[in-house]
Design a protein that fits this description.
The chain is mainly alpha-helical. It is built from 6 helices and 4 strands; from the N terminus they run H-H-H-H-E-E-H-H-E-E. Helices cover about 40% and strands about 10% of the residues.
């Protein structure tokens, strides 16, 4: 079944989901953030069929989330590395993780805690701030149309 593209949707959430929206892709991005780089490492971690993993990796490369590079050990293999666009997904992954830690029916079954590498302390929960520093929640925000941009004039 072919999924519907959301690339032309006016909603930025829908557009983002079009880029990395299936769970396998997010788990591949998670694994890449944790330092996995090779096809076999992703497959061992995720238990994903080779054809599905190959398809997801190809799509993530095509969309600029991952890039391929020769293996760092000089072997004939290639590695998958996060691009700046891929590393930009990190706060989204943290938000998903923290949401699950708060609302999961069995939080005691979560295997890991995210900590600050330097201090070894758990990271604080992500918080949304206004431009003047106030903490915001959903009731404090709204959406409004973007100002219409005037087309540029080309002067010959």
């Amino acid at each position: 079944m072919k999924r519907t593209s959301l690339a032309d949707d006016g909603c930025p959430v829908a557009r983002a989901l079009d880029v990395f929206g299936d769970w396998w892709s997010l788990l591949i991005i998670r694994d890449a953030s944790l330092g996995r780089r090779r096809f076999g490492e992703f497959q061992a971690s995720l238990g994903l069929a080779r054809n599905i993993l190959a398809s997801r990796l190809r799509t993530l490369v095509e969309r600029g989330i991952l890039k391929t590079a020769p293996a760092s050990d000089g072997s004939a293999y290639q590695e998958y590395l996060l691009t700046p666009k891929g590393r930009g997904i990190f706060p989204i992954m943290v938000a998903l993780r923290q949401w699950s830690e708060e609302f999961d029916e069995h939080p005691d079954e979560i295997d890991t805690v995210m900590v600050d590498r330097e201090k070894g302390k758990p990271v604080r929960k992500l918080v949304l701030y206004s431009q003047d520093g106030r903490v915001l929640n959903a009731a404090d925000t709204t959406l409004k149309p973007r100002p219409v941009r005037k087309p540029r004039r080309v002067v010959a």
